[in-house]
Design brief:
nine-stranded parallel beta sheet; alpha/beta; TIM Barrel
Length: 231
């Protein structure tokens, strides 16, 4: 299984490089986040040995169960799933990045539970561009007010945006969502808000990450492309 992960990662890196060439970008500008939800600690360890340094989990409880067995690894942990306010304190203890801030209430809670005022947490604002009721994220017309509110919090740093677009068999159908997220980030960047950077775009998963890279993704969230199919 460790060899499978190494082989999968090599293929992913080739695809990332090809997408970057098409977009005139450098592969160093794209961060691979291995989405390890449902995968056991030994596979995360194998992925780390293969060279991955960023891992994403969807649920706080699952991350809490895995982390003790991986405490010796020097890796960065990203929360990419929906975060409930009552899990904010544990999330701050477990994760180095939160990709899914989608309300002022959640942001305020994350700020209040900081270990100290010097404890700075990079966050991304999750945007629901499709308007799907089943998707979390803030509506497009509410993004700027939320960014402004979060920017005033002492221990959070807004570093960009995240989107989970609708799933289409043809990845090209997702391109407009990725493009719109980039445009939205550019619009916010032009406002020159203090404590706000739109440097990061977390978008693209195993079936559409090449299109996301072509549209400016700086973080792609890959599960099956690295670990193989989930049971």
């Amino acid at each position: 299984m460790a060899q499978d992960i190494t082989d999968n990662l090599a293929k992913v890196r080739e695809r990332v490089a090809a997408a970057c060439r098409r977009a005139g970008r450098s592969p160093e500008d794209v961060r691979l986040i291995a989405i390890s939800k449902t995968f056991p600690p030994e596979l995360i360890r194998a992925a780390s040995a293969a060279g991955l340094r960023h891992f994403g989990e969807n649920r706080v409880q699952e991350a809490a169960a895995k982390r003790p067995a991986l405490s010796d690894l020097t890796v960065t942990w990203h929360l990419v799933g929906h975060l409930q306010t009552n899990k904010a304190k544990l999330a701050r203890e477990l994760f180095h990045w939160i990709h899914s801030v989608d309300s002022q209430r959640l942001a305020a809670r994350l700020d209040r539970v900081a270990a100290s005022r010097d404890d700075r947490l990079p966050v991304l604002i999750e945007v629901n561009l499709s308007g799907e009721a089943t998707k979390t994220g803030v509506a497009e017309n509410e993004v700027v007010p939320l960014v402004e509110a979060v920017s005033r919090l002492e221990t959070l740093e807004v570093r960009g945006l995240m989107v989970i677009p609708p799933w289409f068999e043809d990845p090209e159908r997702v391109r407009p969502f990725f493009r719109r997220l980039r445009e939205l980030a550019e619009e916010i960047e032009s406002r020159q808000l203090s404590n706000v950077s739109m440097r990061e775009l977390s978008m693209g998963m195993s079936h559409d990450f090449e299109v996301a890279i072509e549209e400016g993704a700086t973080m792609v969230r890959l599960g099956t492309a690295i670990f193989g199919p989930r049971e």
